[in-house]
Write a structure and sequence with these properties.
CATH topology: Porin
Radius of gyration: 16 Å
Strand order of the largest sheet: 1-2-3-4-5-6-7-10
Number of strands: 10
Shape: elongated
Largest sheet: 8 strands, antiparallel, barrel
CATH architecture: Beta Barrel
Number of domains: 1
Distance between the termini: 35 Å
Structural class: mainly beta
Length: 155
């Protein structure tokens, strides 16, 4: 939890680079469990390795006892590969808040494939992202995600 708060405080100053690729994406499944709209920004590129962070927002009505759940996924991604085909690794945290006051953090790790055509402004991602709950007891849930994103124009 402390890591998440530190990351949210320091991330804008560390990662707000004007010359790096930024994008928005829609992910079904994945980090948020159901869906999320995400903002992604690259903060380091070395050879065929690209480091980026992703932060998103999702929501879903649960039931009358829990109200509406708000999902806040955050992850660091590493894309490895030449040209348009890349191995995508990620590690993150998803915070779930409900309108009835419940709080549930989930740790996520992922491995997948990212298609990023060089001459297009879109990308596609599919990945295995198990969800790990540890608040009350340890639970491991196999999960997967699929996403489609648009690269934003550079200034």
């Amino acid at each position: 939890m402390r890591f998440c708060m530190l990351a949210f405080i320091l991330l804008p100053s560390i990662c707000w680079c004007q010359d790096r690729q930024k994008s928005v994406s829609l992910e079904l499944g994945g980090l948020a469990g159901t869906y999320s709209l995400n903002y992604e920004s690259q903060f380091k590129s070395v050879g065929n390795k690209n480091w980026s962070y992703r932060i998103g927002l999702g929501g879903l009505p649960i039931d009358k006892n829990n109200g509406i759940a708000l999902y806040l996924p955050f992850a660091f991604d590493l894309s490895i590969g030449e040209a348009q085909h890349k191995l995508n690794l990620e590690a993150g945290q998803t915070l779930t808040l409900t309108t009835k006051g419940s709080f549930h953090p989930l740790t996520t790790f992922g491995i997948g494939y990212k298609l990023e055509p060089l001459d297009k402004n879109w990308f596609f991602r599919i990945h295995y992202t198990p969800l790990i709950s540890y608040l009350y007891d340890f639970q491991y849930q196999n999960w997967a995600g699929i996403g489609f994103g648009i690269k934003l124009k550079q200034n």
